[in-house]
Amino acid sequence: MICLAVGLAAVGAGVLTLRASGAPSVLAVLLFGSLFAFAENQVVVSPERASISASFMVAMASVVVFQHQHTLTGPVLVGAFGACYLPHVRALDWRKILFNLGNFSLATLGAAVAFDALARVGTTSVPVLLLFALPAAFVFSVVDVALVTAVVSASTDKSAREVLSQLVLTGMLQIYPFAVLGVFMGRLYLQIGPVSVLLFIVPIVIARHTFKSYVDLRAAHEATIRILIRALEAKDAYTAGHAERVAKFAIYIGTELSLPPSRLERLRLAALMHDVGKLIVPNHLLNKPGRLTADEYARVRRHEQVSMEILTRIDFLAPVAPSASSEHARFRPVSDEYGQPIEPHIVAVADAFDAMTSTRSYRRALSQEVAFDELRKNAGRQFHPRCVEALITAIERRGEHYGAGFEAESDHWTTPPPQAGTGSAGLGDLLPDPARRLASEGGAA
Predict the structure, then answer these.
(1) pLDDT of the residue at 336
(2) How far is 226 from 222, CA to CA, in rounded Å?
(3) Distance (Å, rounded) from C-alpha 275 to C-alpha 256?
(4) Which of 281, 189, 197 is nearest to 238 (CA)?
(5) Deepest in the core among 228, 234, 394, 426, taking most CB within 10 A?
(6) pLDDT per residue over 116-164, tens digit each?
(7) In whole angstroms, what is the distance from residue 437 CA to residue 444 CA?
(8) Distance from C-alpha of 370 to C-alpha of 427, rounded to nearest angstrom
(9) Does pLDDT of 428 surpass 70?
């Protein structure tokens, strides 16, 4: 329904602009529309599933040209050519075709309205037009991101905030250089005519190559991270999925705290890599059911130093190393409320929550309610209060449940873990008295 509504809105906008500002040059519409479709078919998809292309450069050039012709219908029609994305056309995916038609038409119209309003009150010199291109690009990206967010959140289990945080960086910031280039290309068309459209092909191809190189580099980074995670999970199968869950909870917290997309990405990497140092910890210590001795505990804790060493030696992970370190994660009210990075605290809270709500060798998973209570009890001492409340709020808003009775995976243990362990490691002291007695009678360490 959203796709149909967006498509119909674009048709309505085209009719209204035609009545209000007249018909555009058919040749200009066909030329710029064809270029727009060509650019969209050179699209590169980022790891966040956001589309990156040079089509806005063509849209901005058409805005300049049709502003000179005093018509808003042209930009609407040029944007409609975005529906000619060949994979969707071949699959006869009418929902996506309608959405692309409406989305690009309305976004390009928004940019044209903003640009036209500014051009009417200012001069038409090139430097001034370049300045006008920036607010026009902003309007285009706002309309585009808003419509994509609405349709993705409606068709998936992702919240609008999650989708928006993924799209803002790739969906907005990438188009500003194209806004400037589009103005130049539009002015060039007005000066030398239709032959100038041949020059558009070069930046479109270069842009695709640049985006593809960036996406390939990101893919290589992701592959490196997955190899490290798989190596850790192969060594310690009982913690399989832990890194991904910690990263998910960390993103929940970061989103609640309104971290910008660039910091959310670094936070995700830090959360994924926070336990990589456990590769050097012997398995019999990682999976020991009983209490660790002082020497054993020191050997396990050494994994934090090793994690830092590994991350600092990998160029693209070096910036996230401090966020993955527990050295910076213990809450100190004075320093941490005034300018200190919050990422280590986010990872610490996400890690603690998953540890409590997962079955480990030393005890079975605790309930979500017990985990929430434990986090809140230690907020302001061990954990950052804002991170604790952000995680609880995010999980409750999504209606999600973790812990006892809601574990996604069923592990086969050689020795079934006790209901609760001893002390803080097993958090046996958090269970009701009958359960605690049962754990004690069962020989929990």
Answers:
(1) 45
(2) 6
(3) 24
(4) 281
(5) 426
(6) 998 877 666 778 888 888 899 889 988 988 888 888 777 776 666 666 6
(7) 10
(8) 10
(9) no
Mean pLDDT, range 26-44, rounded to an integer: 91
- What is the Cβ-side half-sphere exposure of residue 375, based on CA atoms within 13 angstroms? 29
Task: Read off the pLDDT band of 389 (50, 70, 90).
Answer: very high
* 291: its two tokens: 């209490």
Q: Which two tokens stand for residue 425?
A: 């490691």
pLDDT of residue 313: 72
Share of the chain above pLDDT 90, in %: 31
Overall residue count recorded for the chain in this entry: 445
Task: Give the model's confidence band at 78: pLDDT under 50 very low, under 70 low, under 90 confident, else very high.
Answer: very high
The label of the residue with tokens 């050494």 reads: 302
